[in-house]
Design a protein that fits this description.
This protein has helices spanning about 75-85, 105-115, 135-145, 165-180, 190-200, 210-215, 215-235, 245-255, 265-270, 275, 295-310, 345-355, 360-375, and strands at about 5, 10, 15-20, 20-25, 30-35, 45, 50-55, 55-60, 65-70, 70, 90-95, 120-130, 150-155, 180-185, 235-240, 260-265, 315, 395-405, 425-435, 435-440, 445. It starts with a strand and ends in an 18-residue tail after the last strand. By secondary structure, the protein is an alpha/beta fold. Strands 8-11-12-13-14-15-16-17 form an 8-stranded parallel beta sheet. It has 13 helices and 21 strands.
Length: about 450
Amino acid sequence: MARTLITGGLVITASDELHVDVLVEESRVVALATPDSHGWTADRVIDARGKYVIPGGVDGHTHMEMPFGGTTASDTFETGTRAAAWGGTTTIVDFAIQSKGGSLREGLDTWHEKADGNCAVDYGFHMIMSDVNDSSLKQMDKLIEAGVTSFKLFTAYPGVFYSDDGQILRAMQQAGTNGGLVMMHAENGIAIDVLVEQALARGERDPRYHGEVRRALLEAEATHRVIRLSQVAGSPVYVVHVSAQEALAELTRARDEGLPVFGETCPQYLFLSTDNLAEPDFEGAKYVCSTPLRPKEHQAALWRGLRTNDLQVVSTDHCPFCFKGQKDMGLGDFSKIPNGMPGVEHRMDLLHQAVVDGHISRRRWIEIACAAPAQMFGLYPRKGTIAPGADADIVLYDPEAEQVLSAETHHMNVDYSAYEGKRITGRVETVLSRGVPVIEGGRYVGHPGHGVYVPRGLCQYL
């Protein structure tokens, strides 16, 4: 049995910071102990002096190879999971999509075909429900048996993913009986479409108008609505990519009432703003995503929500489209710019920068990036922590290393960086996925097919 000993580092989990050694046998962590209390021998010894030893990140919101707006996200499961590994993320939960008129199972099978044998790190799936009807509601139970325990619906994108209030209520009622978790993209898409039409009629066509028509109040209204629908249904709800302080206020109010309401935000809302959307010469198109970037004053509220646990998770909503050949489909009409941004490689680093900047503590960094998403999506304690029995998804992190983020050096399959030129402190040095090195000493040593599908249990955050 292959044994790996990680020695001399500071082990950081959501609950502890300990100067202990970590013993790995095959794919699992088997023991932690102070260096002077054990006599362990191992086939491989990793010197972690001066480094943090942290759990591999869990990114609960990615879109590899996602078709959208007449094109497809530029990262494949191979390139996207490789980039995730470079950034210290060892598990992603991607979104399979039910096509209109199709079954949930057909959608899941399609995404399994895309991912199987191609992933550098482990993966699971959520299911986007595009067609809520008697048949698909019954199929939710079967998907839970297959380890797909969360279902995403949209109050946005009429004619594509949109579900009306009755469909959302029925899906939530079904989740209330089978234990599934309903995830909501909360924006008032019907009203937004009116504002888009009016803006274009006025000749407002630049990327910055994408942010102006997708009003913060319309995010807040939809957030309030899906919370109350979940209350009627008697089921929990998880609101994805919260970007606006008004929407966060709705989540905070519901949680203060004791409701099982959860939310995530994303690095782009914490570090970028409408200033980026307004960059000249169509550069703002790089930052078009939905929910949109908000004015900078929203950032303080989001950081506060992360500190108070009114937001539990930071995911990326990684959905990259190249600036040339994809984003420029919307040149002269912001409504035709594919919605999505790259981010899977930089989440752990940006959140460490937030530790350096004093926004969050080291343990909170690990909680929102590793433990909480694992608990939220039924992966804990196999993923998201370093403890006996957990998968040996372990990152050696150099907290003193400095780096400059750039499209020239990132590993995502996209021709720009949303954080071009940003200097940050901290860098991934070595990554183990189930005990196997994927990144070693700053080199990629993994391969497609190492990553396996991980069936998920029910939400453990309740």
